[in-house]
Amino acid sequence: MGSGRNGGPPVTELPYSASPVPNDWHRKGLPAWTYHSEALFALEREKLFLTHWQLAGHECDIPNPGDWLSFDLLGERAVIMRGADGVVRAFHNLCRHRGARVVDGDSGHCKGAIVCPFHGWVYNLDGTLRGAAKPSSFGAMQREDFGLKPIEMSLFHGFIFIRFTPGPQPAIAELLAPYDADFTAYRLGDLLPVQLPHWASDLAVNWKSVRDVDNEGYHVAMAHPALQELYGRTYRDLYLESGLNISHGYFGDAPGRGWSVRHYVKLSPPRADLPLHLQQAWTYYGLFPNTVIAMTPEGAQFYQDLPLSVGKTRLTGRLYRWAGETRQARAARYLAYRIDRETSAEDQQLSIWSNESMKSSAFEGFHLSDLEYGLRCHHDGLRTLLPVMTQADAPPEDRMAAANAELTCQSVAAP
């Protein structure tokens, strides 16, 4: 097996049980109305985003007792905190007195206790109530009844997943089992956050338009010259079960012409500790409905599309490096970031164009390539949860929830 410096990247079969693209399949996507219906967006909030696992960060983001991260989603607010006992827990970021945020910002540190900034109620780092301000003014209040409300949380190789209400996805360890071997090989427990690891930008599009672009690699050759030069010749998408997908490409079979690609290929550190299919590879691990974890030899990141409204989406994520990073690896990570930043700008423009077409009278729906089957898989997941999306014409907005409930009952009753 050769390397990029000796005849190209390693050539090996990928060890995933991927579903093949059917020979004949329905090539239409979701109808255009689903991208601008307020009533449908309300159903997406209730039955999709709040009931599915969301990635909030990594344990390395909160290394010390009292360190915390926040995570907001469609009216719900979470705080993830490391307790005095070292245990990571997730709570609703909501004081039990008047509902104020008990912490404010993306991240921070509470020294010994959480103090609500509204009236000064004090909580222990494990979420239990230590005491209310002027406790005698509340009568016979039992402190044990007023701790911060917990949120379901699970860890997977250090990544922190939460969901606000129970939903159809299984436990994280079961759901992400196909990724376990790769994540073990990458030693994700050794990750460290980079300086200013959190990033976010808002885009005036429906969240599905962002996912439609990211869920297929057909556009890489035309729209992403840097990625095409880096690994486009070997890029492939694989579709797994349970809303998982993997996108994968090898680099190193060409020196690269663009400045960032050329120097990245030269500096990316060899990782002989990784299995062959991960050496000199950029790999993206997708989780339905809106999260991707990306790995390169010198760093890791996750990114996600968080809807703010039917026509506005927050693109956000966090960046990580490995402990013991060399100067060469740090330089390669910076170059990978430059390539990623350029790619993100290109994808954002594509998302804008795709989203605006949904209100055009000339738009007659998608006609998808086999190379866009990932987009179809994502749409199938949405249609399964919200069968109203199968309707070519939008139900009246005040009938949206009822129409979806009726179609759900029909699908359950069907043999």
From TrEMBL:
InterPro entries associated with the record: Rieske_2Fe-2S, Rieske_2Fe-2S_sf, Ring_hydroxy_dOase_asu_C_dom, Rng_hydr_dOase-A
Single GO MF annotation: dioxygenase activity
Organism, scientific name: Gemmobacter lutimaris
Pfam families reported in the protein's UniProt record: Rieske, Ring_hydroxyl_A
This protein's UniProt keywords: 2Fe-2S, Dioxygenase, Iron, Iron-sulfur, Metal-binding, Oxidoreductase
Gene3D superfamilies given in the database record: Naphthalene 1,2-dioxygenase Alpha Subunit, Chain A, domain 1 (3.90.380.10), Rieske [2Fe-2S] iron-sulphur domain (2.102.10.10)
Protein name: Aromatic ring-hydroxylating dioxygenase subunit alpha
Domain Rieske span(s) in chain numbering: 53-162
CDD domains membership: RHO_alpha_C, Rieske_RO_Alpha_N
Names of required cofactors: Fe cation
